[in-house]
Specification:
CATH architecture: 3-Layer(aba) Sandwich
Strand content: 15-25%
Shape: globular
Radius of gyration: 17 Å
Helix content: 25-40%
């Protein structure tokens, strides 16, 4: 995708120039590394600034409104660093932990953090379920797994009243209404907010799940 197609400053004029520059450099690295490995789909490259970066920004703002005073946020199945790396760029005071089992993808996130001077971003190359139990208070995921499966995998990691935010499409309820939906019984799950991507590129939803029973 040509660099001149970078439209984030137009969509979000309130973001400062230094932050916009880091976001742009991150996006360029994302496109560069995608030539060597599967970070984003070929069909999303042309409008990657909208489908990936703008989506992350809008979803992150919704999460920020719910996590005032939070000291650290985990990004499970971070993959290409969305939303974790974008969150770290937008809010340098917030500690972000990106977790993925693919060493190549973790190398990409590490490279972005190093080249862009993102000091509040840490990476972990491991399976999410291998993290220490009962240590996570706030986490988020985009493209990690269906909601039901995500909650099943990570349940033991969360503290009581821990919160897990999911970036999803408007049909997210299909992910928690199947024959195994009883696995979600220890979570309160609801739609937090919907938003529309710029230039009518689709609707997105942030779903919130809160752990309510550690028994």
């Amino acid at each position: 995708m040509p660099a001149e197609n970078w439209r984030i400053p137009k969509f979000f004029p309130e973001i400062s120039m230094p932050v916009l520059e880091k976001l742009k450099n991150y996006h360029l690295e994302l496109l560069k590394w995608t030539r060597k490995m599967n970070l984003i789909s070929a069909g999303s490259i042309e409008n990657g600034d909208i489908i990936h970066i703008a989506d992350a920004i809008q979803g992150i703002r919704i999460i920020q409104s719910e996590t005032s005073g939070c000291q650290e946020i985990w990004d499970f199945g971070s993959g290409n660093g969305i939303p974790g790396a974008v969150y770290a760029i937008l809010d340098p005071e917030q500690k972000i932990h990106c977790v993925d089992s693919d060493q190549r993808k973790i190398s990409f996130i590490k490279n972005v953090a190093l080249t862009q001077g993102i000091q509040n971003l840490e990476t972990y190359c491991c399976r999410v379920e291998d993290l220490e139990k009962n240590t996570v208070n706030v986490a988020m995921a985009r493209g990690f797994a269906p909601i039901e499966k995500s909650l099943e995998i990570t349940e033991a990691l969360f503290q009581q009243k821990g919160t897990f935010f999911h970036f999803k499409g408007p049909d997210w309820k299909n992910e928690v209404s199947g024959p195994n939906s009883e696995k979600c019984s220890t979570w309160n799950i609801s739609e937090l907010s919907q938003y529309e991507l710029p230039e009518n590129k689709g609707k997105r939803t942030v779903v919130i799940a809160t752990r309510h029973n550690l028994g």
